[in-house]
């Protein structure tokens, strides 16, 4: 099996995205204070939130785009983007799955996505999704009984303004970075979740999410708060390929973990990556951060990133509470001309804080990938512990993998470990698998999944299975 | 089962197999013995279809098919198994998972139903007991952290599960201690039946004390220079290959 063949295997066309032409009530392109006011008014927001947005907008004006990431793309014209677009109805969507591109359906099937979700994902008109609506209602009732708040961000602003006001921007301040400031000024919608004291959320907040919040727009805002002793597992995104007419995505996710609480946040991102010549594709500039505010709290990020033309993303943990724990498990795939600069920041502030970083990067085609991670141990963080492991796997000889670990340790009692490796799929491995009857495609898929195993086992069970299949589909062009 | 006629093959521009003829009938066990560098392993890889080996002349028929027309995995699915001299490690992929994927790929190609996890587990346990493999190796990543002997035992386990029509075992006995050799031999013997053929590539006669071959071939200079019964192996052990090597180059 030659390098050339591996290259052929990993080259595949992305034909599975879709564009649904939703009649929209959108703002004219461009960004100004008026647009920020317009968005806020459209959403009927309280005065304090408008002020917050305006403050963010004014900070953003003073800021410049970060250029330190190892990604290159043409300059973004922020005045050519429309910052508000309200979906009105789905009447233009396909009437049933029969009208949907069979290849798209084939992909859904390969990923094992249930029929009613396929309909939702493919944008089939509402009444066809009746089943899932009732399922969602059942979930909602169950969550309500436990006092769990889980709703769209807009709804939360109306129904629970005190909670939103208390925690919004408490982890990612409006001035944090260029894209976070932009998001704070113009965010469209997103999710809000509050788990009250001592409550263990009885279900993965995944199924619900996948049914209800498919299209939250390009400036998504998520806020999750786990009160003392609460536990929640949240899943964002889905393995099904997603296409979006908005090229720029700048989401912000904030997690707050109070005393003895536990938040597990899993992401599967499969946005349109552009074609095999590097044309098109989503730019994904995301700020994700969690604060372990309370003693013995824990935040765990797990991400599987296979889509987007450009990924700029560093899910991080502020380990403030004594004995708090931060974890980051990541699989990132770059194929064709995809670029990813991704990693994490673990900031040890409290005593006896612990962090683990497991990053698996896979590059194929002309993909370029950088792991960028910061482990920072502040002066007062007695007995901080960190273990980092960054492994890169290369498929072919045109791709690249780079590892940039930053370590800042200001307390002598800290233990910080970093391990890194770069390897290639060897022809011997593929040959060995083929001699045992597997096709070259299945062999590559098997080897890559083996490489990612430590991360996949952190995913919720049903998603781990989907993620494995997704990786196969992403790398092999084996559709049909 | 296997018919090789006038096979010429080269690797990296050098001709390694030179006018090789070999006939292995159903149910037969053949031993191919020869000095280092004589092309024994090349023969194994040419049969398996490894890239980088070019067949320049000759024919190979396997179970009625033109073997050289088939891809590596098609050969495997047709019932050809190669026991690797250096088994490959696959990190993160559990041994049992790998073997089930393998078995099911082959069953699927044959039009048989795939085995579910439970049925497969039953089969695997039985075969693991046959090669006296500690069950903990079944859930460990394929060959990762295995000793040389454990890797070879694992090859035999794979063979026992896949039950190939023809097993070509490339120096499976190298690096085994006496106990491991006995176990591996037992595994090989278990495949022996009128429907299965085995080609043992080996340097040493000792394996042949446990797996008594029907035919022994002396391999030198890229072809078979002499064939005979088991006594040929004993003669080789006593006198070495020198006489045959000079015969090959003559």
Keywords, please?
heterodimer; A: 480 residues; alpha/beta; eleven-stranded mixed sheet; seven-stranded parallel sheet; 14 helices; B: 250 residues; Rossmann fold; six-stranded mixed sheet; four-stranded antiparallel sheet; 12 strands; 38% helix; globular
Strand-helix topology:
The complex is a heterodimer of chains A (480) and B (250).
Chain A (H helix, E strand, L loop, with lengths): L2 H8 L13 E3 L6 H10 L4 H16 L22 E3 L14 H10 L3 H7 L8 H16 L3 E4 H7 L1 H7 L10 H9 L2 E7 L11 H6 L7 E7 L4 E7 L10 E2 L2 E6 L4 E8 L13 E10 L5 E8 L4 E4 L2 E4 L5 E10 L4 E10 L5 E10 L4 E10 L7 E10 L5 E10 L5 E10 L2 H9 L4 H12 L1 H4 L4 H16 L4
Parallel strand pairs in A: 4-5, 5-8, 6-9, 7-10, 8-10, 9-11, 10-12, 10-13, 11-14, 12-15, 13-15, 14-16, 15-17, 16-18, 17-19, 18-20
Antiparallel strand pairs in A: 1-2, 3-4
Helix pairs in contact in A: 2-3, 3-9, 7-8, 11-12, 12-14
Chain B lengths: L1 E10 L2 E11 L4 E5 L6 H9 L4 E10 L2 E2 L5 H6 L2 E4 L6 E5 H15 L7 H14 L10 E2 L5 H15 L3 E5 L7 H14 L5 E6 L3 H5 L4 E6 L2 E6 L1 H10 L2 H8 L1
Parallel strand pairs in B: 3-10, 3-11, 6-9, 9-10
Antiparallel strand pairs in B: 1-2, 1-4, 4-5, 7-8, 11-12
Helix pairs in contact in B: 5-6
Mean pLDDT of chain A: 81
CATH fold title of chain B: Rossmann fold
**Number of E-state strands of chain B:** 12
| Percent helix range of chain B | 25-40%
What is the radius of gyration of chain A? 22 Å
Shape of chain B: globular
Average pLDDT figure of chain B = 92
Count of DSSP H/I helices of chain B: 9
Distance, first to last CA of chain A: 22 Å
The fraction of residues in strands of chain B falls at 25-35%
Low-pLDDT stretches of chain A: 12-24, 124-135, 207-216
Regions of chain B with pLDDT < 50 over 5+ consecutive residues? none
Output the structural class of chain B: alpha/beta
- What is the correct CATH architecture of chain B? 3-Layer(aba) Sandwich
Biggest sheet architecture of chain B: 6 strands, mixed
Kindly give the count of domains of chain A.
1
**Number of beta strands of chain A:** 20
Q: Compute the gyration radius of chain B: what is it?
A: 18 Å
Label the structural class of chain A: alpha/beta
Total helices of chain A: the number is 14
């Amino acid at each position: 099996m030659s390098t050339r063949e591996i290259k052929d295997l990993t080259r595949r066309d992305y034909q599975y995205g879709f564009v649904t032409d939703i009649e929209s009530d959108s703002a004219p392109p461009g960004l100004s204070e008026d647009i920020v006011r317009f968005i806020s008014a459209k959403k009927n927001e309280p005065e304090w939130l408008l002020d917050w947005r305006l403050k963010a907008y004014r900070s953003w004006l003073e800021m410049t785009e970060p250029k330190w990431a190892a990604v290159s793309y043409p300059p973004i014209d922020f005045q050519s983007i429309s910052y508000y677009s309200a979906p009105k109805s789905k009447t233009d969507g396909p009437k049933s799955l029969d009208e949907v591109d069979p290849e798209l359906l084939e992909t859904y099937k390969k990923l094992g996505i249930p029929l009613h979700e396929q309909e939702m994902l493919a944008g089939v008109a509402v009444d066809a999704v009746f089943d899932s609506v009732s399922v969602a209602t059942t979930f909602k009732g169950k969550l309500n009984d436990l006092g769990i708040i889980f709703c769209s961000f807009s709804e939360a602003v109306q129904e629970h303004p005190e909670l939103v006001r208390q925690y919004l921007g408490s982890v990612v301040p409006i001035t944090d970075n260029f894209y976070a400031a932009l998001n704070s000024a113009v965010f469209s919608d997103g999710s809000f979740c509050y788990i009250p004291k001592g409550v263990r959320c009885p279900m993965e907040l995944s199924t619900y999410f996948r049914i209800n919040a498919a299209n939250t727009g390009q400036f998504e805002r998520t806020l999750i708060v786990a009160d003392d002793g609460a536990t929640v597992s949240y899943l964002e995104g889905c393995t099904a390929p997603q296409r979006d007419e908005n090229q720029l995505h700048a989401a912000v996710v904030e997690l707050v973990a109070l005393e003895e609480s536990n938040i597990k946040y899993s992401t599967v991102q499969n946005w349109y990556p552009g074609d095999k010549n590097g044309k098109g594709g989503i730019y994904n500039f995301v700020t994700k951060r969690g604060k372990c505010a309370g003693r013995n709290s824990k935040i765990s990020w797990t991400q599987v990133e296979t889509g987007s033309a450009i990924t700029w993303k560093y899910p991080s943990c502020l380990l403030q509470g004594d004995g708090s724990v931060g974890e980051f498990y990541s699989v990132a795939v770059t194929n064709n001309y995809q670029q990813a600069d991704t990693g994490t920041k673990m900031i040890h502030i409290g005593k006896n804080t612990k962090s683990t970083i497991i990053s698996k990067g896979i590059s194929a085609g002309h993909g370029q990938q950088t792991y960028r991670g910061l482990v920072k141990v502040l002066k007062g963080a007695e007995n901080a512990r960190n273990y980092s492991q960054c492994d890169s796997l290369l498929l072919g000889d045109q791709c690249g993998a780079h590892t940039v670990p930053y370590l800042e340790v200001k307390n002598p009692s800290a233990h910080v470990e970093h391990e890194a490796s770069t390897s290639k799929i060897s022809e011997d491995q593929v040959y060995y698998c083929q001699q045992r009857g597997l096709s070259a495609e299945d062999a590559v898929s098997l080897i890559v999944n083996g490489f990612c195993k430590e991360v996949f086992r952190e995913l919720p069970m049903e998603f781990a299975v989907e993620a494995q299949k997704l990786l196969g589909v992403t790398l092999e062009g084996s559709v049909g | 089962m296997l018919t090789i006629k006038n096979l010429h093959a080269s690797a990296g521009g050098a001709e390694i197999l030179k006018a090789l003829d070999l006939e292995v009938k159903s149910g037969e066990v053949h031993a191919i013995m020869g000095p280092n560098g004589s092309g024994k392993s090349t023969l194994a890889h040419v049969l398996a279809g490894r890239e980088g080996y070019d067949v320049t002349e000759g024919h190979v028929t396997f179970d009625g098919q033109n073997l050289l027309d088939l891809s590596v995995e098609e050969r495997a699915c047709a019932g050809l198994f190669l026991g690797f001299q250096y088994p490959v490690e696959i990190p993160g992929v559990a041994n049992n998972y790998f073997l089930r994927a393998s078995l099911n790929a082959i069953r699927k190609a044959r039009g048989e139903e795939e085995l579910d996890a439970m049925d497969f587990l039953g089969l695997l346990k039985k075969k693991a007991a046959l090669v006296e493999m500690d069950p903990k190796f079944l859930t460990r990543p394929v060959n990762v952290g295995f000793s040389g002997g454990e890797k070879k035992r694992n090859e035999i386990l794979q063979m026992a599960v896949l039950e190939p029509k023809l097993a070509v075992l490339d120096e499976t006995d190298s690096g085994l201690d006496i106990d491991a050799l006995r176990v591996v031999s037992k595994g090989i013997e278990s495949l022996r039946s009128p429907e299965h053929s085995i080609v043992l590539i080996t340097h040493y006669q000792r394996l042949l004390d446990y797996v008594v071959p029907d035919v022994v071939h002396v391999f030198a200079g890229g072809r078979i220079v002499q064939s005979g019964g088991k006594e040929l192996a004993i003669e080789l052990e006593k006198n070495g290959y020198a006489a045959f090597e000079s015969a090959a180059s003559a």
